[in-house]
Design goal:
By secondary structure, the protein is mainly α. The protein has 13 helices and 2 strands, in the order H-H-H-H-E-E-H-H-H-H-H-H-H-H-H. Strand 1 and strand 2 form a beta hairpin. Bound molecules: geranylgeranyl diphosphate.
Length: 287
């Protein structure tokens, strides 16, 4: 099975990402207790999929690993901020995250807000530092791509659609998935390409691959949530509620086909990214 082929690579990448996060995130100090809560959330066991995408793209394009790892750490901090804020009572109100009490349950709501803010801003402090890449233009391009992907035209905009509870049509749900989940997956791949100095065509190709992968990931997450709900109230924005399970699966498969298509010119160099696509459904309980 494809999962068995890929999982050692994912496990190795997750361990490597954890190590760099450990090194980069300051330990708690007497004057700043926030770091303890930031580390509690950022060092909790996650799959590190977005970081894996940056590493795999950067490796494919011969980027030195120490540059890629710093970008990976920044992306995982951003992802973690989104989870901490999403779990808050005013948002999705989840008490559990990554097998542990959510940040606001462990440290209180006000601290959880600051943890999100702290991880988000610290990520950009990392990206702006010359250790991330000696070329300031590359660092600016990374920051521009990341801010676009996670701001009002990206992840935050997607979350805003989600909290409006106005999802009715397939178009609504497609926009939600593209912004809320697709944008961060897309920029995770794009960042690897930017680090390598790739031309705009290749950057675009990697963005397309990541976006479609993210869309498929979100649809499978919705299908899993539909069959094994985490909340008492069904999520209004669940694609299965809008389209039914058969069509939802069809759209996930279509997104995977499009992602594969984006990688086609890269041939066997993209083997790791292709394998990830093939084993994506295996991450979820789909019935
Ligand atoms: C609060 C600004 C803001 C944004 C929140 C990404 C997001 C937007 C919310 C997270 C909640 C959610 C269910 C998002 C859909 C994407 C998703 C399934 C995220 C969880 O990603 P995994 O499974 O998490 O990769 P791990 O823990 O493995 O890193």
């Amino acid at each position: 099975m494809t999962t068995i082929l890929l999982s050692p690579q994912l496990t190795t990448a997750a361990a490597e990402i954890r190590t760099i996060l450990e090194q980069l995130l300051p330990a708690e100090t007497t004057h700043n207790s926030l770091y303890a809560a930031m580390r509690y959330s950022a060092l909790a066991e996650g799959k590190a999929l977005r970081g894996f995408l940056t590493l795999a793209t950067a490796t494919m394009l011969n980027v030195p690993r120490h540059y890629a790892l710093r970008v990976t750490a920044a992306i995982e901090m951003i992802h973690c901020y989104s989870l901490v804020h999403d779990d808050l009572p005013a948002m999705d109100n989840d008490d559990w995250r990554r097998g542990k009490p959510s940040c606001h349950i462990a440290f209180g709501e006000a601290t959880a807000i600051l943890v999100g803010d702290g991880l988000l801003t610290f990520a950009f402090q990392l990206l702006a530092h010359p250790s991330t890449h000696p070329d300031a233009t590359i660092r600016c391009l990374l920051i521009e791509a990341l801010t676009k992907a996670i701001g009002p035209e990206g992840m935050v905009g997607g979350q805003n659609i989600d909290i409006q509870h106005s999802i009715e049509t397939f178009e609504d749900i497609s926009t939600l998935h593209r912004l809320k989940t697709g944008a961060l997956f897309a920029v995770s791949c794009e960042a690897g390409a930017i680090l390598s100095g790739a031309d705009p065509t290749l950057q675009h190709r990697m963005r397309c691959y990541g976006e479609q992968l993210g869309i498929a990931f979100q649809i499978y997450d919705d299908i899993e949530d539909y069959h094994h709900p985490k909340h008492a109230q069904p999520e209004l924005s669940n694609i299965v509620r809008v389209l039914g399970p058969e069509q939802a699966r069809g759209h996930a498969e279509n997104a995977i086909t499009q992602a594969l298509e984006a990688l086609r010119p890269l041939g066997s160099n993209a083997a790791e990214l292709i394998t990830l696509l093939e084993c994506l459904p295996d991450f979820f309980s789909l019935d």
